[in-house]
Amino acid sequence: MGEARSQVLWNHTSSVLAMLANIHRDAKRSRVYHPADFNPHAKKRSQPKTMVGIEALKHVFIDRMQEKQ
Hints:
Blueprint: H1 2-24, H2 54-68
């Protein structure tokens, strides 16, 4: 029950912090802040890591050009 209360309080606090950060940010130099950026309970969003081998690039750029000719 204590964990749920902590999550609820942090949801509220992180929303307020994100709003304040967005009010005071420089739109040209920084990104938009989200409540998850300030919430220690939120799961961190990670960029999907896509690994492509050189064979795939060869197929896209070289083999397709030869097929068109």
